[in-house]
Design a protein that fits this description.
The protein contains 3 helices and 4 strands, in the order E-H-E-E-E-H-H. By secondary structure, the protein is an alpha+beta fold. It has a single domain, classed as 2-Layer Sandwich (Double Stranded RNA Binding Domain), CATH 3.30.160. Strand 3 and strand 4 form a beta hairpin. The radius of gyration is 25 Å and the shape is elongated. The termini are far apart.
Amino acid sequence: MQTPLEIEFNGVEKSDALEAKITEKFNKLSRHFSRMTSGRVVVAKPHRHSKGANPFLIKIEVGVPGQPPVLISSARDDDREHEDIQIALRDAFDAAKRRLDELAAKLSRGAQAKSERGRRRPAKVLPSASDTSDL
């Protein structure tokens, strides 16, 4: 990665252990997808949820050259309330890995299509009128 990882906490107590866990997960992600140029992780705990739960929200932004930044958010679902920070981190980084795998497949399909264009057979050259007069 060209720029260091940025970690931001909104409404969550900053801790060295949590920063180390995020850094570890992001480093693992960058080894999986080596084309990353930048990374940013936001850990937030929005104001009190109407159902009484107070879930965590994890946002991951990954910079890739020649592409818009890849944004992954562990948006709150009714089915998946992330009340545990470790589970929220796991789910967010799993989603990031899937999105980067999709991007890698898309990029390799594009590179494959470009190489296919170069391998097409050249057009047949028809003999000119001066070539046929010698026959």
